[in-house]
Design brief:
CATH topology: Rhopdopsin 7-helix transmembrane proteins
Oligomer: single chain
Structural class: mainly alpha
Shape: elongated
CATH architecture: Up-down Bundle
Strand content: under 5%
Number of helices: 10
CATH superfamily: Rhodopsin 7-helix transmembrane proteins
Helix content: 55-70%
Number of strands: 0
Distance between the termini: 55 Å
Radius of gyration: 25 Å
Largest sheet: none
């Protein structure tokens, strides 16, 4: 329990959270208003939808072998970060408003650290996706040849870095011994930490936008040099559609998080005229809504993903020849086209008897990425 006595000279290690809020000018009422009830109710509703929808994405990627490629593992890890974000915001809803002043400093740091960890995990996952797309697109491939083991090592590394970033303020980068440097939005955080965190994320956003811009320019240039061969055209279409999907995910992430990071940056720089507290809750709601966007993008862009969602939601087992949960539409490589020709010849020789396809585990077709 925090008590109202100084632990050491010049520091306030044992002061309550309420003490720091009052010193920073972010006063919190000790009783619930109608506005508080509305915010918490809406916030909890959104959190439950976020958790459910991202569990659905993770389940679809695990269920459908068509998604067992590095890019989908990284997108699944992004969904896991969004799921963690939903849990973090749900935890925030139970520790916000008048409840805030009842928190110990340890509980407050845990509350903020969960949100910091979820954002860092999302940013690093998007950066990993950008690097993976850069590697594959410049080789005009649909999927990276990176081993599954290496992908999972990258995913574990992402979460380790995210956890460390969430723990940094708790480990010492706070203002408990220097009240003049305390933030207004996050009264126990040092302004210098907010500046560092906001600039780091904004810089990462800029790098990812630059990478995707370079990829799009390269693909557009390369597509003009490609012949009109059906296989090459379908390959190019699939690459472009997959690029559009991951770019939409990045774009919405930047749109949802940039306002909040800018407000944090202004607070960290000590902009008293900016009235950051006026925009804080709106930016928080916008950032929370980002975790809802990705499952919607998956649903609208990928027919295979939509179909797998339906299978999970309806709890139906596929019947007939498609028992493995794999779509009947395949991405046609040149080898696949040649194999199909051979299969057609064999079918003609067998008087139209059906043959079992050997290519049920190929990547999604251009038709599946609308």
């Amino acid at each position: 329990m925090d008590i109202q006595t100084d632990d050491t000279e010049g520091c306030y290690l044992n002061r309550s959270v309420k003490f720091f809020y009052e010193k920073s000018g972010k006063n919190i009422s000790d009783h619930w208003s109608r506005r508080d009830y509305v915010i918490v109710s809406l916030g909890m509703t959104v959190c439950f939808i976020v958790i459910f929808s991202n569990l659905l994405v993770i389940g679809a990627i695990l269920k459908n072998r068509r998604f067992h490629f590095p890019i989908y593992y990284l997108l699944g890890n992004l969904a896991l970060a969004d799921l963690f974000s939903g849990v973090s915001y749900l935890h925030l809803m139970f520790h916000t408003g008048p409840w805030t002043i009842k928190l110990s400093k340890y509980q407050w740091f845990v509350r903020q650290g969960l949100i910091d960890t979820s954002l860092t995990a999302s940013v690093l996952n998007l950066l990993a996706v950008a690097v993976e797309r850069h590697q594959t697109i410049f080789n005009m491939q649909l999927h990276s040849k990176m081993s599954t083991r290496r992908v999972f090592v990258i995913m574990i590394f992402i979460w380790l870095v995210a956890i460390v970033m969430g723990l940094v303020p708790t480990m010492g980068w706070h203002c408990l011994c220097d009240l003049d440097k305390c933030s207004t939005m996050a009264p126990l955080y040092s302004r210098s930490y907010l500046v560092f965190w906001a600039l780091l994320n904004l810089l990462t956003f800029s790098i990812m936008v630059a990478v995707y811009t370079r990829i799009f320019l390269y693909v557009r240039h390369k597509s003009k040099q490609m012949s009109q061969h059906t296989t090459q055209m379908r390959h190019r279409e699939t690459v472009l559609n997959l690029m559009k999907t991951v770019s939409m995910i990045l774009g919405w992430f930047v749109i949802c998080w940039t306002p909040g990071l800018v407000v944090l940056l202004l607070d960290g720089l000590g902009c008293d005229k900016c009235k950051v507290l006026r925009y804080e809750k709106y930016c928080l709601v916008l950032a929370e809504c980002n975790s809802l966007v990705n499952p919607i993008i998956y649903s609208f862009r990928d027919k295979d993903m939509r179909r797998t969602f339906r299978e999970i939601l309806c709890c139906l087992c596929q019947r007939g020849g498609d028992k493995s949960g794999v779509s009947g539409v395949n991405f046609n490589t040149l080898d696949h086209e040649n194999s199909k020709s051979r299969d057609m010849e064999l079918m003609e020789k067998s008087n139209g008897a059906p043959l079992i396809s050997k290519h049920s585990d190929e990547a999604p077709s251009p038709d599946s990425w609308n």
